[in-house]
Amino acid sequence: MLSLRVLARLLDYPSAELQAAAPELIEIINDERRLPAALRARLMDWCQRLLEADLLELQSEYVALFDKGRATSLLLFEHVHGESRDRGQAMVDLMAEYRAAGFELDARELPDYLPMFLEYLSTRPEADIGRWLGEIRHILALLSARLEEREADHALVPLALLALIGAEEDVAAHRDSVKEEAPDDTPEALDEVWEEEAVRFSAASDEDCALQSAEGRRLAERKKAVPSDPVKIMPGSGPADRGPTDR
Fold first, then answer.
1. 99-115 tens-digit pLDDT
2. Per the count of CB atoms within 10 A, which of 89, 169, 187, 229 is most buried?
């Protein structure tokens, strides 16, 4: 499903290459036609703005949005575990899932980095895509609401992922609470982050090895018994529709 790769690219740090690829991104979004027409139009308009905008301004906005504070983090497990050891175990479990599927990571990225996760999903069957998006839908809804509050186009990415499984209305449940959240990108809030214990991504003792996160248990259980298609991807529509294997 190439539209997942488009959404991954739209969350990347802005570059000249991304700007140059904007026309191709627009074409893929339009051709797959899996998203509602209004949402496709908003995504294509955003791609056009990326093409025409000043690159330095795009980069400055990206840093302010994603590199300060945790509220809009693109690391999925940070929204669930923060910087606890459970997050480390969840990363190990997800890495094992990638390797079992023959998906090897570039060492520069963490396995729960959302663009990387979308790259992985783009290689999977529709049933797997729907299942995974269903499992992280609460994170996607919260992230979309927080990005909306900051009036960022990037909110369209988690919204589009929710729309693929017919769950875009989930965002509404978070909009009021997000308005009440204290800013986490102030100097004071950032100082508190530096004072917290660093996350550990590897087991340093037998006790750590025995540690099982919620994600770890869920993955183990899912390998034993997987319900059939609990969440389905929205089908394409219209004469220009192409399935995920037709491109």
1. 888 887 766 778 889 99
2. 89
